[in-house]
Amino acid sequence: MLHVHCVHRLRLLLLWGSLLFGVVISSPTPRKLFGEITSPNHPKPYPNNNISTWDITVPKGFVVKLNFWQFDLEPSESCLYDYVKVAQSFLNSKQDLGRYCGQLGSATGNHPGVKEFVSKGNRMRVMFHSDFSNEENGTLIPYKGFLAYYQAVGEYESSTCRRGALGPIPNRQRPQDSSQTRSTISTELSVRFNIFFSLPRTPSPLRSGRVCPWQCP
């Protein structure tokens, strides 16, 4: 009788433990306002036959802004072999922001350059794809992949005329050469909140050097 009672208590403990564990793993993941994503093995060459997907979600009321700071993929016509694809949302694959590959200045491919990718909502998907080989005329080319930063910005932050900015800003400038190593980039990100006030009919100082006139309605 005592043995049966102990077994019953043990089963209850296991049940409580499984419920508790289930609650822990199903709890919502905090949504970060900024971060970075890299191709596999970056800054070392990325592997062949790889498909990696990043689904970025920021709090509602914000949009996702993404920039590539380093980009070094195998170039090809229409980016058929190795590529990075950016989509507005991971719920609708048709809302693509483009497919990109190649190196800065390469004759083929579609290098993103300094392009800023901005989602319409609070979600964005980035997908990396590599094929079975990175050889050219029998020579193995060690392409290093990509490094990208994303941040949550207010919906008005993504427009041309901005009065305030809420979002993390990298402390250092973008490297000019995509072959520079990751150590040349400061990964320290800070959240800045700037509010500008101006008199009617006068220009207001804006971040990034933009000046937008404001008038009374």
TrEMBL record:
<dbReference type="GO" id="GO:0045087">
    <property type="term" value="P:innate immune response"/>
</dbReference>
<keyword id="KW-0732">Signal</keyword>
<dbReference type="InterPro" id="IPR000859">
    <property type="entry name" value="CUB_dom"/>
</dbReference>
<feature type="region of interest" description="Disordered">
    <location>
        <begin position="164"/>
        <end position="184"/>
    </location>
</feature>
<feature type="domain" description="CUB">
    <location>
        <begin position="21"/>
        <end position="153"/>
    </location>
</feature>
<dbReference type="Pfam" id="PF00431">
    <property type="entry name" value="CUB"/>
</dbReference>
<dbReference type="GO" id="GO:0031638">
    <property type="term" value="P:zymogen activation"/>
</dbReference>
<keyword id="KW-0325">Glycoprotein</keyword>
<feature type="signal peptide">
    <location>
        <begin position="1"/>
        <end position="26"/>
    </location>
</feature>
<keyword id="KW-0399">Innate immunity</keyword>
<protein>
    <submittedName>
        <fullName>Complement C1r</fullName>
    </submittedName>
</protein>
<dbReference type="GO" id="GO:0072562">
    <property type="term" value="C:blood microparticle"/>
</dbReference>
<keyword id="KW-0391">Immunity</keyword>
<keyword id="KW-1015">Disulfide bond</keyword>
<dbReference type="GO" id="GO:0004252">
    <property type="term" value="F:serine-type endopeptidase activity"/>
</dbReference>
<dbReference type="InterPro" id="IPR035914">
    <property type="entry name" value="Sperma_CUB_dom_sf"/>
</dbReference>
